[in-house]
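Following up on my earlier message about magnesium ion. Here are the inputs again, as you asked, copied directly from the submission form:
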Amino acid sequence: MTGGYGKSGPDILHDCTIAVDKGEIAVIVGPNGAGKSTAMKAVFGMLDLREGHVRLDGEDISRLSPQARVAKGMGFVPQNNNIFTSMTVEENLEMGAFIRTDDISGTMNQVYDLFPILREKRRQAAGELSGGQRQQVAVGRALMTKPKVLMLDEPTAGVSPIVMDELFDRIIEVSRTGIPILMVEQNARQALEIADKGYVMVQGRNAYTGTGKELLADPEVRKSFLGG
Ligand SMILES: Nc1ncnc2c1ncn2[C@@H]1O[C@H](COP(=O)(O)OP(=O)(O)O)[C@@H](O)[C@H]1O
Ligand SMILES: [Mg+2]
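Thanks, got it. Here's what our run produced:
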């Protein structure tokens, strides 16, 4: 993907490639401002690519709107403003299912089984929840469409290390249900530990690509991006 914001904004992404295969967790790490969120937004159709393609199950979806991509099976949790704070937890989940016309109660129960605290707090305004609980609402909301692929931009931002570990465990659990996960993470070391595939992005380009293990063992990656 090559592209930037608006009609004439500078390119932020330069021939950047990210992908996730069935059964995998793929993780994108890199410094602030590298273009990680921009790459996720590009995959979701929130900016126009100047070059490159987005494919889902082999189908070129580069020209589809974000709404159409959701209908095709993309679930996306953006980095910011990813819940409706004045709505209840349950209303957030219902909003997540907006494209569905079938019975959503089974999926809602699955989300509540995955995140039991949300069942307890389902009548509470989502804005009253802790940071980690809000992230659970955001992930749960995305799961309500029964996505084919789940994209998460910094799902553990601003939470304690314990809550981070818990969220990672839940993310692994989601991936085991057969939903591939493409995730941006600032907790690079921990995220690469659970990654089948990892990308280090720098200035809108792929700097390093490998399995999570390979990247964790790479001296250059360690020195520059993992604190030694
Ligand atoms: N909505 C936007 N409009 C214009 N430029 C943006 C916008 N969002 C991000 N940028 C710019 O894109 C670059 C990459 O930002 P971002 O993708 O958010 O990086 P990261 O997620 O890796 O921290 C930065 O220079 C940032 O200023
Ligand atoms: Mg970002």
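One observation from looking it over: Residues 161-176 form the longest helix (16 residues). Hope that helps, and feel free to reply on this thread.
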